[in-house]
TrEMBL record:
SUPFAM superfamilies: YjgF-like. Pfam families: Ribonuc_L-PSP. Belongs to the RutC family. This is DfrA. One of its GO terms (molecular function) is deaminase activity. GO terms for cellular component: cytosol. InterPro entries: RidA, RutC-like_sf, YjgF/YER057c/UK114.
Length: 126
């Protein structure tokens, strides 16, 4: 049975979707951008801080579903500028053990919602 996961500790969806869907032990988390859920404002100006905020939003959704980053099996990172890859990777990597990190792709795109620089989605399995 499909269960919808939403938490006030992550930004509210800005369209017709939910923060995550849990189905048969697999959690599909919608892409998270660097919005501070406490203020509703974008975190801007430093790609490491932007990436960290996106990861903190993902963490809040994982927490709501009773999971941690250890449950994550796949991530997708969408970035506006591949030249920022190393800084994004550094901030992202702080949330995972290199030996057990999930599968991932990183894709440069023309634009993202609210014209942010980074968006990250995840799939986790319990």
């Amino acid at each position: 049975m499909k269960k919808i996961i939403n938490t006030p500790n992550a930004p509210a969806p800005i369209g017709p979707y939910n923060q995550a869907t849990l189905m048969n032990g697999t959690l599909y988390i919608s892409g998270q951008i660097p919005i501070d859920p406490a203020t509703g404002n974008l975190v801007e100006g430093d790609i490491k801080k932007e990436t960290t905020q996106s990861m903190e939003n993902l963490k809040a959704i994982l927490d709501e579903a009773g999971m941690t980053f250890d449950h994550v099996v796949k991530t997708s990172i969408f970035i506006k500028d591949m030249n920022q890859f190393s800084e994004i990777n550094e901030a992202y990597g702080a949330y995972f053990d290199a030996e057990t990190a999930p599968a991932r792709e990183t894709v440069e795109v023309a634009n993202l919602p609210k014209f942010v620089n980074v968006e990250i989605s995840m799939i986790a399995v319990k």
